[in-house]
Specification:
With 521 residues, this protein is mostly helical. Helices cover 61% and strands 4% of the residues.
Length: 521
């Protein structure tokens, strides 16, 4: 056997192995789980499993961190736990409603729902600025008696929907130009962020702004525009820090919390001491000492310090791994989205959950200034819990619709279907959507033919008998070596690959000559 034949044989074997491997992977990914393809269902199940673990763990840690304070102030050690359970149940119901309610599909959000929700969010933000409950120099809450509503938390999913719609219109549907995109982002993102900043709530503003920048990056926006946006945001942040002394104090505390351990750095130093006392394996669930009225907001903003003290370094790593796995599953769900809008909605929800998580973590360990943002699904708080579950509902909606949707289906839905009753002389030449540009149908052959309809670009009134008889097609004679045989059983990729000069092309020709020609067979 010559070297050329050996090369052709080894290449054929490699193609066969790759074909079998691709077929096996396709079979595995399309295997059904509960009636849904595995490539869709696997990330959904991973996401739900991690979410359930985090919510249950958060309830446990809220009880552990708040039991002492609740007993002293409310007369019951389970006061905060009971309320947090109610918030979790309400959030679960909201997520299930958003994920399964038939009328509220992603198409509805894109066409109508996002605008209605944006108007409602802006109205609530204006209301909280005018008549909201003040605390710590800020107006962020609306007191409802049994529940304190924080509109900035519920503005997060609304802004994500608005940004996803604007970016998809510009980059996928091409229904907006550059100025139209800028105007849509100003209305859907800039106006709510400005109102949140007026409250003031700098932490939420930064988290939402970072999420929108990440969504624009995923949509394909050029880096130069993103760098300009980031530069403007950094300049605005510097001005805000210089305008308010308390913001500058937070930066100073993050740089050196031990400079004033009994004043501005009190919470930061106690959080560091809690992590240090936890060591490698922790004191055990319920064994924290900082929750005994030492660390303020132990069950809220600083609950991570209690987790570090009771579970130690190993427990913290496991906790971080579960949360990161949940975010990874969200991006896998986003990747399966039918269109850019769906992908950006899921990716935006995952990004904002991850951004808020790391803003809290980095603030507690002292790498960044503390912003007062809660730990999603872990910290005590009704608005944060329900708003986080609304994001979950949008993610699950993207996953559910991905199982039945595809970009090709969306294109087919935009096709114009024309019935035979619409085929008249006026539709022979069309100038608008919904009309045929192929002309009127006529019979092939005489009136006694089978009735196969074709669309002819000529005059619609010409009958079948007016056509000239077709001239006979000349019959081609085979070449001296016979017609080249096409092997339809080979790898389809080979038939799409261009011929190249050299040994590979010669090997392919030799292989075909070895199989013979049509006349030889």
């Amino acid at each position: 056997m010559s070297r050329t034949d050996e090369t052709a044989g080894s290449r054929s074997e490699r193609h066969e192995r790759s074909r079998r491997s691709a077929a096996a992977k396709a079979s595995l990914s399309e295997r059904l789980i509960a009636g849904v393809p595995a490539r869709i269902m696997r990330p959904r199940l991973v996401f739900l499993a991690c979410l359930a673990a985090l919510v249950l763990f958060g309830l446990l840690m809220v009880y552990s961190a708040s039991a002492v304070e609740a007993l002293a102030e409310e007369g019951s050690s389970t006061y905060y736990l009971f309320r947090q359970v109610l918030f979790a149940v309400a959030g679960t119901a909201a997520a299930a409603f958003l994920a399964h309610f038939p009328a509220w599909s992603l198409a509805w959000y894109r066409e109508r729902g996002a605008k209605l929700l944006l108007a409602l969010a802006v109205a609530l933000l204006l209301l909280v600025i005018v008549a909201g409950a003040a605390s710590g120099g800020a107006r962020r809450w609306i007191a409802l008696g049994f529940f304190t509503l924080q509109p900035s938390e519920f503005a997060k999913p609304v802004i994500i929907l608005a940004a996803a719609d604007a970016l998809s219109q510009f980059y996928e549907r091409r229904s907006l130009d550059g100025w139209g995109l800028l105007g849509a982002l100003v209305v859907g993102v800039g106006v709510p962020l400005a109102l949140i900043l007026v409250e003031p709530d700098t932490g939420t503003t930064l988290i939402i702004a970072a999420t929108v920048v990440a969504m624009a990056l995923l949509a394909g926006m050029p880096y130069k525009y993103l760098l300009i946006a980031v530069g403007v945001a950094v300049l605005l942040l510097v001005l805000l820090v210089l305008a308010e002394p308390y913001r500058l104090t937070r930066f100073i505390v993050a740089r050196d919390p031990w400079a004033d351990p009994y004043g501005t750095g009190y919470q930061a130093t106690l959080a560091i001491m809690a992590f240090a006392s936890g060591g490698l394996t922790g004191r055990g669930i319920g064994g924290s000492t900082m929750k005994y009225s030492y660390l303020p907001e132990a069950h809220n903003d600083y609950i991570l310090a209690i987790i570090g003290e009771e579970l130690g370094f190993i427990g913290m790593l496991v906790f971080l791994a579960v949360f990161m796995l949940m975010i990874y599953a969200v991006f896998k769900i986003a990747r399966q989205g039918a269109g850019l809008y769906e992908k950006l909605v899921a990716a935006g929800c995952g990004t904002i959950l991850g951004a808020q998580f790391f803003v809290n973590v980095l603030g507690i360990v002292g790498f960044t200034p503390m912003t007062g943002k809660t730990l999603p699904f872990i910290s005590y708080g009704g608005s944060s819990m329900i708003a986080s579950f609304i994001l979950v509902g949008l993610i699950l909606r993207v996953s559910r619709e991905s199982a039945a949707a595809s970009p090709y289906r969306a294109r087919r839905e935009r096709f114009a279907v024309m019935g035979e009753e619409e085929l008249d002389e006026e539709s022979a030449v069309s100038s608008h959507l919904g009309r045929s540009t192929a002309g009127a149908p006529r019979r092939r052959g005489d009136a006694a033919s089978s009735g196969f309809n074709v669309y002819d670009g000529g005059a619609a009134t010409r009958g079948a008998g007016d056509r000239p008889a077709p001239s006979p097609r000349p019959r081609r004679t085979p070449p001296a070596g016979g017609w080249e045989r096409v092997d339809l059983n080979a790898d389809p990729a080979d038939r799409l690959r261009e011929r190249r000069s050299g040994r590979g092309s010669d090997a392919g020709s030799a292989s075909r000559r070895g199989r013979g020609s049509r006349h030889d067979r």
